[in-house]
Amino acid sequence: MRWGLAGASEIAATSIIQGIRAQAGSRVVAVHSRSAQRGADYARRHGIEHSYDSLAGLLDHPGIDAVYVSTTNDRHAAEAIAALRAGKHVLCEKPLALELADAEAMVATAAAAGVVLATNHGRRNDPAVRAARDLISAGTLGTPLAAHTSAAFLLPEQLRTWRLSGAAGGGAALDLLVHDADTLRFVLADEIVSVQAATPSRGEEDGDRSEEVIAGTLSMARGPVASFLCSFATPHGGSNLDVFGESAALRASRAPGRPSTLVLRTTAGEEPVLLPDAPPIGVATIAAFEAALRGHGRPTADGEDGVASLAVALAARESARTGVRVPLPAAQGTGRPASS
Ligand code: NDP
What's the CA-to-centroid distance between 157 and ligand 1, angstroms? Predict the structure, then answer.
């Protein structure tokens, strides 16, 4: 498989290039950056043969099969659609787009072109998240009634750039809540049907600044409720998923640079769940994507999963703005079970 990178990004450098190179016969052949200089430096640093300062140049490069889109969020939809129209399979970063219609257009374009579109909700390949899903589906918790997710930390100074810009598609909802919404859909094998959210008022909003903190509640189609906290502004928040069932509860936790953990709580007490050795998330995500192209299984999260998580983030923002609970398209019966 020959890959092109749309975006000379940090996430490609720290996760996806390794993921591609871990697959037998796969390689990264070219990168696109708007800046010829940055693209050339990036290509040199990461051992990539070609760099282009136009997306068209990357897409015209002979023999590219798949494109990984990891530019800033505002660029995902247009770049992914261009790649899909050029007949490339696309793994796109989250959020797929800034507007639902654009994300839906991406899914439709992939279907029309007969190529695969996947969303990088790689957290599904976190062994703690997978084990949580397995325990829940095996009935270990009894009926799941409630859940809580938190993705709350202090965004380091060097990352306080486009991630907080409305125009670039930054903010806690589009950056963080999309992941947690997807993880809930995946772990509970259920759809989110409505959202109510709020943001703290700190009196420092300006025109282009996105929310740094958003919290709220979600209702799931089969009954459970969930609360969430997504924050770029609270250094002591942590990254946890709690699921509470009739007979037991579990907590999956992540911390930078450390393996994830999963703890099961029953009347007998707390018990750590032994997690299998697993490849790095980027390696597992690329393996699943490439297998899907060969007709084996599905990508870790497909385009429709990306549409669903984006819908939740946009609904949360709307709810925070208007103060009312926002129903999601799934509530009108257009949802589908979360893919595995
Ligand atoms: P980066 O800030 O590293 O890169 C994003 C874009 O910004 C690049 O494509 C590049 O575009 C431009 N850029 C990079 N460096 C510079 C620079 N020094 N000066 C000016 N522009 C620069 O972003 P991330 O890697 O953090 O995130 C990229 C995407 O991946 C986002 O959509 C994000 O939401 C997603 N992401 C997903 C994660 C996941 O778990 N799935 C985790 C982290 C991020 P160009 O060179 O064309 O100007």
Answer: 15
Give the length of the chain: 340
Beta pairing, strands 117-119 & 89-92: parallel
pLDDT in tens, 104-152: 999 999 999 999 999 999 999 999 999 999 999 999 999 999 999 999 9
Mutate-to-test residue for ligand 1 from 9, 51, 96, highest number of ligand atoms within 8 A of CB: 9
Q: Please state, in angstroms and rounded to a whole number, the distance separating the CA atoms of residues 86 and 164.
A: 32
203-216: pLDDT as tens digits:
555 678 899 999 99
Token output for 282:
């980027």
- Please name each of the domains of the chain with its CATH number: 2-122 (3.40.50.720), 124-277+302-327 (3.30.360.10)
Return the ligand 1 atom nearest residue 75 CA: 32
Asked if residue 72 has its Cβ within 6 Å of ligand 1, the reply is yes
Structure tokens at 239: 């990254």
